[in-house]
Amino acid sequence: MKKLLKSSLLALASLALLTGANAKTLENGVLKIATEGTYSPYSYHDKNDALTGYDVEVAREVAKKLNLKAEFIEAPWDAMLAAFDAGKADIVFNQVSITDERKKKYDYTAPYTVAYAALVTHKDNNEIKSFEDLKGKKSAHSATSNWAGIAQKYGAQIVTVDGFSKGVELIISRRADATINDSVTFYDYINQRPNAPLKIAASGSEPIYSAAIVKKGNEELVNDVNKALGELKSEGKLKEISVKYFGKDISE
């Protein structure tokens, strides 16, 4: 009797956790996740060409909590969001910074990353020493990224690229003056390319929170993902994944 009661409670708990996913996702048993796949160390391909990274692992663990199969849809930032807007994915896990502007269009889950802005320039650039020095300078970014918004706020001219790696390539070739991203991404890039002529010219002091996004009004899916993230946090899994990629906990 006790075993039957326990099984029934587990079944009810699983059903409750799945309630928020949309009908198509439930029907197929799949959680379609949009991500870049070129944004190390968050979402990228390893030496065996397997998709991995902090966001990818967090997304997989969330899908597992929801008893759904994780299916990833990869594209550069702007194309990724366009695909999500077109209904090609249920959720985006790709370091989407929480902004008031995006809140008008999407619903956010609870944040799972806390980061700080880093202003990156060529190592020989002595003109840019602060964010204020970006005025009139060329800053390379994905068009709709939060980092582009920060650069514009300081008066920079945005040079559109597909992601951080493409942005720093323009800096190295002196076709752009700067880019902004989080310091973790910069140090990961330098770790892989120690001779890259780049530096952090200035660092932000305000924390920037990132979360997954879902379609506006899908409160059930937000609640289910938040429950899964909460469990991963209390179990120490979020910290474990974070330490694996960064050597420290960036989840809070």
UniProtKB/TrEMBL annotation:
SUPFAM superfamilies attached to this UniProt entry: Periplasmic binding protein-like II (SSF53850)
Predominant cellular place of this UniProt entry's protein: other
Keyword presence, Signal: yes
Subcellular location: Cell envelope
Residues of the Solute-binding protein family 3/N-terminal domain: 30-249
Annotated InterPro entries: SBP_3_CS, Solute-binding_3/MltF_N
Gene3D superfamilies the UniProt entry points to: Periplasmic binding protein-like II (3.40.190.10)
Signal sequence bounds: 1-23
Entry keywords, A to Z: Signal
Keyword Manganese attributed: no
Gene Ontology CC terms: cell envelope
Pfam families given in the database record: SBP_bac_3 (PF00497)
Assigned protein family: Belongs to the bacterial solute-binding protein 3 family.
Protein name per the record: Amino acid ABC transporter substrate-binding protein
